[in-house]
Write a structure and sequence with these properties.
single chain, alpha+beta, Alpha-Beta Plaits, four-stranded antiparallel beta sheet, 31% helix
Length: 70
């Protein structure tokens, strides 16, 4: 399953790396791409192993608000 999360504005590339590392560490996540310029996070994960809610919670725990998801 693939999802894209629209975040509130990312303020630095280090923040993008922090999000990418945290989401990649979740079980079942295949790939993560953080698009700094557009404040988007693209995640590809296995349906049965990863829960989209866990990805969202992980991003929010790092202090980033999610404006929407596709």
């Amino acid at each position: 399953m693939k999802k894209t999360y629209q975040l509130e504005t990312l303020t630095c590339p280090t923040c993008a790396q922090k999000i990418e590392s945290a989401v990649k560490s979740l079980q079942g996540v295949k790939d993560v791409e953080v698009l700094f310029n557009s404040s988007r996070v693209k995640v590809n994960y296995e349906d049965e192993m990863a829960d989209g809610k866990e990805v969202k919670k992980t991003i929010e725990r790092l202090g980033f608000g999610i404006l929407g998801e596709k």
